[in-house]
Amino acid sequence: MMYAIEKNIPLAKKTSVGSTLGRKSKYPFGKMNVSESFVVPANAPEAKVLDGSYTPRVASAAYAYGRKHGKKFSYRLDDKENVRVWRIA
Asked: For 27-51, what is each residue's pLDDT tens digit?
């Protein structure tokens, strides 16, 4: 395949990978204070493990949010495979 070389094209505005691009978050990370938590039911897609990982989707989202906003989260699975997410810092 041949690629055309172009001149005088302005550089597009930088966006972060995985940016929500104005979408409202499905998780309440931004509203949580330290020691508060929420639960994701086991039958919800967010409680499922990503392909090739041992981490539920909601836990990955919490980690990414925390890195971007300087907060820390932890999660645990209960005996019914529900996922509870706590803000710890």
From this structure: 999 999 999 999 998 888 888 876 6
DSSP assignment of 19-69 = --TTPPPSS-GGGPPTT-EEEE-TTSGGGSBPTT-SSBHHHHHHHHHHHHH
Contact 9/19 with Cβ under 8 angstroms?
no
Contact 29, 74 (CB under 8 A): no
Give burial (CB, 10 Å; 0-12/13-18/19+) of 51. Answer: exposed
Report the distance separating Cα 4 and Cα 15, nearest Å.
24
Cα(77)–Cα(34) distance, integer angstroms: 19
